[in-house]
Write a structure and sequence with these properties.
The chain has three helices and seven strands. With 170 residues, the chain is an alpha+beta fold. Strand 3 and strand 4 form a beta hairpin. It has two domains: 119 residues, no CATH class; 38 residues, no CATH class. It starts with a strand and ends with a helix.
Length: 170
């Protein structure tokens, strides 16, 4: 459960032990989605009138394409997470790193802070292995599986002027 009644938080800190599903509505188009449920643990505390503070950690897995050969790679994603929630109208609610609560809100939804932390922790690029040879830029075969007869030393003519300068200074 990642929704908490504000009245229960005001009466005492709440232990967070919940899950965020890979098909949850919090995820947006273009996000690196988890491939399974993300486990979230932590503590949600009252931090003054209209303010609540969450600190914890999350863990899950994501599937992404290898940046060299485009095969699917499963990668673990985990990190710590924290966030301040403040009701609209408070000075803190206008800051970029604060998650706003609508005035008169009855619950704190931790999903947005977990989503943001997930996106920051998820790797931008993954490789299937350190020695991945990738795809041939000419014929497109996977060089990890087979070899091709394409010229491996093709050069881009747009760099010829710089190459000439480098060679003349040597």
């Amino acid at each position: 459960m990642l929704y908490f009644d504000i009245r229960t938080i005001e009466s005492g800190a709440q232990t967070v032990n919940g899950h965020l599903g890979e098909d949850d509505a919090v995820w947006e188009e273009g996000d690196m989605l988890p491939s399974s449920t993300v486990h979230v643990e932590g503590r949600l505390s009252y931090a003054g009138p209209g303010r609540f503070y969450f600190t914890g950690q999350f863990s899950g897995e994501a599937v992404a394409s290898c940046r060299r050969c485009l095969t699917d790679v499963t990668t673990s994603v985990s990190d710590t997470v924290s966030g301040l929630f403040a009701e609209a109208g408070l000075d803190e609610a206008e800051e970029d790193d604060v998650f706003p609560l609508t005035a008169g809100a009855r619950a704190v939804d931790l999903r947005p802070v977990v989503r943001e932390a997930w996106l920051l922790a998820a790797p931008a690029f993954v490789t299937c292995r350190d020695d991945c040879q990738g795809l041939c830029p000419i014929c497109g075969i996977d060089r990890n599986v087979e070899t091709c007869a394409c010229a491996s030393a093709s050069t881009d003519s747009r760099w010829d002027a710089l190459r000439a300068m480098r060679d003349s200074s040597s």
